[in-house]
């Protein structure tokens, strides 16, 4: 059984009198000043695993079985198998211009914040590029938010954000009639399966939950039971009822902006937490649309038709102009 182990630091000169060991990957070891973050977040200094004392020098202070120990973004969530003082986080953040690690509990979490920007008026200081699926009819405009909207074919969902070459989050938009119809036909089940392959995904419904029981397409109890079953099967893809279309648009913007900030944090600490938890295979970023390549070609003075497919040499020139840092093409010619 996986355990959290706290031992006394055998180094008498250290101001951090305890060693904290977690079974993450090949093991994570920290020097810290206490056995639990009761009144304040405890600073943790990362140490090499081979600094763990030999059996003869080991003085274990506490050994507790773990219910869960998993990395989520810039933190490791730790749940102990005991009734009290059982939830805590190891948080990777930055302070005073350097990387820092804190051990915090729910009581002390406000004193050590991870690298996630919580949106207030705007979802962070930077403009967010939101990819709108090319097949989305009457899409959100995000006119009142700090965004740049591009239209491309998405592998899943209607709105997404990209980091590097990876689609890191997507949101599927549903009106209530569409939600009920897709439940009855089984399309929603397959859509959630595709969304679950992404690092972050959600479904937003432009209506109230109470309206499920007022619709007449399917028996209300059948709809409610089906939604509950889908949430149990895919707990990582929440279905959110946002009451109105404007509220659904606002929720989509903030969700995608937060997911992009979270993905940047995960990327920043990925090397430090190598092997902390299994990752889903990356989903490639959506390819550019024919309209996007056509507009680029015209801006370069390349003659292209107003409609239809583009010549392979036009795609070759686009890929060459937009090749990544490793020299690989940015996309491939659609079949």
From TrEMBL:
GO terms for biological process: DNA metabolic process. Gene3D superfamilies: 3.40.50.10130, E3-binding domain. Residues 129-209 form the ERCC4 domain. Keywords: DNA-binding. This is Lsr2 protein. GO terms for molecular function: acyltransferase activity; DNA binding; nuclease activity. It comes from the Bacteria.
């Amino acid at each position: 059984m996986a355990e959290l182990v706290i031992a006394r630091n055998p180094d008498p000169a250290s101001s951090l009198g305890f060693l904290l060991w977690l079974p993450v990957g090949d093991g994570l070891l920290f020097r810290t000043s206490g056995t639990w973050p009761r009144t304040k977040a405890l600073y943790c200094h990362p140490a090499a695993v081979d600094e763990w004392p030999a059996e003869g020098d080991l003085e274990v202070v506490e050994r507790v079985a773990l219910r869960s120990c998993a990395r989520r973004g810039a933190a490791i969530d730790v749940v102990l198998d005991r009734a009290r003082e059982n939830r805590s986080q190891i948080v990777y953040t930055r302070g005073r211009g350097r990387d820092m690690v804190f051990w915090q509990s729910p009581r002390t979490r406000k004193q050590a914040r991870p690298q996630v920007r919580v949106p207030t008026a705007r979802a962070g200081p930077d403009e967010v590029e939101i990819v709108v699926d090319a097949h989305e009819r009457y899409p959100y405009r995000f006119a009142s938010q700090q965004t740049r909207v591009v239209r491309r074919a998405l592998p899943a969902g209607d709105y997404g954000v990209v980091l590097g070459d990876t689609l890191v989050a997507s949101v599927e938009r549903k009106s209530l009639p569409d939600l009920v119809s897709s439940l009855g036909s089984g399309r929603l089940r397959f859509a959630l399966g595709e969304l679950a392959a992404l690092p972050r995904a959600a479904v937003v419904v432009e209506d109230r939950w109470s309206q499920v029981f007022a619709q007449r397409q399917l028996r209300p109890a059948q709809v409610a039971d089906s939604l509950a079953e889908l949430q149990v099967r895919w707990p990582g893809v929440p279905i959110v009822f946002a009451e109105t279309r404007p509220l659904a648009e606002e929720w989509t913007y903030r969700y995608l902006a937060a997911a992009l900030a979270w993905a940047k944090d995960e990327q920043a600490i990925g090397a430090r937490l190598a092997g902390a938890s299994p990752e889903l295979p990356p989903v490639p970023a959506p390819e550019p649309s024919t309209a996007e390549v056509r507009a680029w070609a015209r801006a370069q003075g390349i003659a292209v038709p107003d409609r239809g497919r583009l010549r392979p040499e036009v795609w070759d020139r686009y890929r060459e102009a937009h090749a990544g840092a490793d020299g690989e093409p940015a996309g491939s010619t659609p079949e």
